Batch of 4 targets.
Target 1
Amino acid sequence: MTIKIDLGCGGAKRPGYIGLDYIDAPGVDHVLDLTAEPFPFADDSVDEVYSAHFLEHVTVPNNVLMEIGRVCKDGAHIQIWTPYAFSNEAFFYGHTAYLTETVWYQWCVSHHREAAPLLGGRWLLDSVTFIVNPNVHGELQSHGVPIDFAIKYHKGVVEEFGVDLTYRADLDAPGVEPKRLWSHTRFGEANLLVPGGGEPGVAAPPTTLTQRLKRWVPEPMKPALRSLRRH
């Protein structure tokens, strides 16, 4: 039997999953404190773990992470969504953790051996997906700002982000190169982020100071400026 669990599901449990939360809401199958109590599953028994907008409420996630590592089968799929730290949503009252992809790169890529006691094995970071509101994406395009650049350096572009991971019991399991993706919706079509641009409809970024300044001069003022240069 395939076991799929939804951690911190509240009243919005993902269909086909077993819901766990500390509140007794419709759809919650097991009521418990995920931050302190063991999950009600045997070691190496869970095939999929899903969580959406739960981890940002947890100040110290050690028990959550260790229990995920304990119950996951080798090769289990883990998907976790949280608000992006550089979004207004991240600062909703009650949130206590402000997360970006950096912590996942540390736990799963650069410091995976140091993180092994916390994670109960090796978590391979398969991909990071950034959710960008379509209206924000349109504004970026109208200003010629590549979406990869905006995600890296601008606040308020990414609303939430999700990580897809594979649990491996073997700490020496070969690593993977995480994909960086973006989408307009959580389960919509995901697009590969291309460093330096490469997005259809977006011009290459200006390279000289003059080119950069021209971008911010209002169109009605440009004839007057060209006239001044001739004098």
Target 2
Amino acid sequence: MSARGIVVVRGGGDIATGTICRLHRCGYQVFVLETEFPTAIRRTVSFCEAIYDGTTSVENITAVRVQAAHDCHGIWQQNKVAICVDNKATSIETLHPLAVVDAILAKKNFGTSTSMAPITIGLGPGFSAGKDVHAVIETARGHSLGRVIYSGEALPNSGIPGEIQGFSKDRVIYAKSSGTLQIIRDIDSRVTAGEIVAKISDIPVEAPITGLVRGMLRNSFLVHEGLKIADIDPRIDEPENCYTISDKARCISGGVLEALLSLSNTNHVG
């Protein structure tokens, strides 16, 4: 398959990874920019784990850490995704990509602008389509999830986790204190409500509901009070969910691809 062009994706968490996988499968050369210490909860489906481990695979697609933008081409020749530490996105000037996708999901814009590439796409709130990016993708669950917005903004962040089998806030675990995370029950573990799944500097962290540990920060990670550190999936008999891209991520990735193709096929891109 001939390369369609270079796409830089800012962020390598689980939602970003859904987009990265779709673009890679569709023939784009994808370069992922991350921070030095990513904090992905769903580590088993997040390409940002390659920042720590050097390489990681999600749904048979492999991401490899490189030191700089000029190292990407060798990785692309191996039909893999390249990723590096570049939270300021300085690599973009070297690569001259067709598109930049901001998938940091920080609910605010960390410097992404229409000047970065012929096509710029922002995921979720914090971006204004037609001003700082060319298109925004709706990330709020509901009827408009994955919708492409060419003028205006996405819905504001509700702060409420998505509902799974009637559980929403109850399935997410936040750190009640600061300290070093010690994992007791890692991703894919079946746990019961009240069971200790981790410790933060010897302070027990209990599972709020019965289910599968679907997400957990890395062992020995230094956390602060209020940080999201884990989530429990009540679908206890579906362990495959721990290793596959979520429905939400797939839906959002479809919106990204639609925006990319639509903007590429108009006079917007020469």
Target 3
Amino acid sequence: MRILYGVVGEGMGHATRSRVVLEHLLSRRHELHVVVSGRAEGFLKDVFSDRSGTGPGTIDITAIHGLKLVLDEVGVDRSASLWANLGAAPEGVLRNIAAYAEVAMELQPELVISDFESWAYLYARTHDVPLVSIDNMQVIHRCRHPEEVTAGRHSRKALDFRIAQLSVKAKVAGADHYLASSFFFPPVRKTRTTLVPPILRPEILAAEREPGDHLLVYQTAANNAALLPLLGKLPVPVRLYGMGTESPVDVPANVTLRPFSQQGFIDDLRTARGAVAPGGYSLMGEAVHLHVPLLAIPLQKQFEQQLNARYLSMLGYGAWAEAPTEEAIVGFLDRIDDHAHGVSRYTPRRNDLLFGCLDELIERAASGERRMDSLAVPSLGDLVSSRTDAALGEDTVR
């Protein structure tokens, strides 16, 4: 089948997740055309450099213009993000028009898959092509959540939750089916929705948990030098990612600045006593899979990260805090044995359930079926641990 696959380029989690799905589709001899923006373009082109071309079992990758988020030390800088996107808009429009002509004239896709990406979604809706959504964001809109993670009915956080729901709904509205990836499994409230476990890259699936003494810390603000003195007060060795290998201030004796390395990061994660990171879904799913206790510090004005962090804490897999304070990190370390016990209850799963769902959707779309309310594959609710069900108060349904 000829498949158009859209990958949002903001954040590398979408790219690493899509890589797993694309490799599976190539193994099934589908002809793929990927539209992608941002850093994800270079990553995917490098991964699939030996599979490029046209025809069954090949992949063609086209760069498109996507929105960009500008981060400061605590979260998303909305003003800077707005101006950055406005400045790039004219060139971006021209790039997307060229990509449209290439896809429409050359590929003529029979199916569109969107990983929370708007360009491919709009193509599917404009040309009435079957559309499948694969991402973690749809859990926000298509599932029911307890007030414990939505912060109640009458608070500002409740308003943030409602805004996030509406935004996610609008992003890929009207898909024929939604595969929502999650490490927590709330009750599904919408048809055409199937929950699947975290989509894990092969390097994570091959990793073995060997707990050590160090704390892995991942942070996204490269100039956040104020973090170093705080980490220097901790009673454990720290391996710090996201700041490079040079610092404008003295690096404490217990802190090691680590350069970016995919395998190096995985090794430090699987052997960590615990980890501290923002609330990004991909890293959180990997930590939970490997049974690494995590302190999540979600970016401000990023409700999806806040939701992830609250579920992490509620299920006993770790803790969350609004800021990387000494009190929050020391409190996490003081209870790390409890968190380790909690996350050990999570049942690691491979990508087989996702692949089974996707293969079924492709087969049914090829036969002309649309608006697929449910799938023949087992409900993820049958696989969820009793600990998760008890925390959420009811079984997960498809």
Target 4
Amino acid sequence: MRYLVDTDYLIDATGGIPSAVQTLQRLSDQGVAVSIISYGEIFEGAYGFADPKTLLAAYQEFLGDYPTLPLSGPIMATFARTRYFLRRMGQLIPDLDLLIAATALAHGLTLVTRNIRHFARIPDLALYPARG
């Protein structure tokens, strides 16, 4: 496994946005995983629709194509260490984003995201697309 996909790409892919679908297809051969945190973020969005049950089933089916990485002790340690660092620097990002980043760091994965603005603050986090 080489990549962890952030929620933004997953939402775009489930919405059929060609660039997101093509990126996930291209990277799948190298191994793509999803954080359990992204499940919560995606599922939350379903509740804003008239028929969340159908949408939740579609999301579940889509996410079933990828291994799911749960939270663990090492991930939480990475989260705490990184959150402390970002707080000291005055550069905190939302906790859910930080948990996704900590998952990527703990597993040595490159994070596939469009949210470079937040994730570029995290030392040693490899990003796709690469930060410039």
